[in-house]
Amino acid sequence: xxxxxxxxxxxxxxxxxxxxxxxxxxxxxxxxxxxxxxxxxxxxxxxxxxxxxxxxxxxxxxxxxxxxxxxxxxxxxxxxxxxxxxxxxxxxxxxxxxxxxxxxxxxxxxxxxxxxxxxxxxxxxxxxxxxxxxxxxxxxxxxxxxxxxxxxxxxxxxxxxxxxxxxxxxxxxxxxxxxxxxxxxxxxxxxxxxxxxxxxxxxxxxxxxxxxxxxxxxxxxxxxxxxxxxxxxxxxxxxxxxxxxxxxxxxxxxxxxxxxxxxxxxxxxxxxxxxxxxxxxxxxxxxxxxxxxxxxxxxxxxxxxxxxxxxxxxxxxxxxxxxxxxxxxxxxxxxxxxxxxxxxxxx
Length: 347
Fold this sequence. Notes:
Layout (H helix, E strand, L loop, with lengths): L4 H9 L6 H12 L5 H14 L3 H14 L10 E5 L10 H11 L4 E5 L9 H7 L11 H8 L1 E5 H4 L7 H7 L19 E5 L5 H12 L2 E7 L12 E7 L2 E7 L19 H12 L5 H18 L5 H17 L2 H16 L4
Parallel strand pairs: 1-4, 2-3, 4-5
Antiparallel strand pairs: 5-6, 6-7
GO biological process, one term: L-tryptophan biosynthetic process
Organism: Aeromicrobium chenweiae
Family: In the C-terminal section; belongs to the anthranilate phosphoribosyltransferase family.
């Protein structure tokens, strides 16, 4: 079937859902550099205004992966990342959880970028911590094998996505493109723990993982965070065996006290990196509780066993706590820095 921009945009403006083929075609045109700025903006805003369907999101993801530099990693690994967009300016909870998970002996392939809606994105804080982001793509797997964790810097593995950047910057509002990152990890991990600030998009993202046959938790704090929060309860969409089940997680059921939003607030990369070091160093705080919750979810997703949500997260938290208290998380961070410094090109 031959698609055209007038056909696709007319359908969206009329609030008609597109099929996988139509959205895949549109994304292919964008990533190939064939779409104009007006076409990209019109598509992004019309799709967001109508409201995305699972088929439309699948088409975008399929096209993104076709244009990506994919990564083949040994064994079962997990990704831990949030979509951003919650505007809460928290510390880098998922980044800390990734290191803690790796310290628990679980391979982590984290996919991320610089800050978009926060003062300190994943890449920004890792750089301050001494982790080099410019390790060649050909050696990313070696980093994983030597340290238990590696980072796929999105611009390196998804270079074609650059065609969307000027339009997204000028629009200044979230679009469907903001939710693609966690779904297009170049390693396509078998397990994921994904935070999504948008309550409507979270179950769609879970549906993508279910179609893929992955094990995952997609979650949204009831305070709006793209994390499992410590300020209130969190809605969780569990993905196991190709099905999605929605549940509710209360940190008090896991022996944690509720905290204030200010207790999770972050700042510039240097500030967040200091919090990062203190948490993996064993400091007790509400941030530690948030890190344990999110690492616990990542570990539970990686384990991939059935059972009550709270029990599986609790088992994951026990391993995450041991990772910190034994010093394994701090050693993982140090080793990761050393190896990436060794493998990155001279400055």
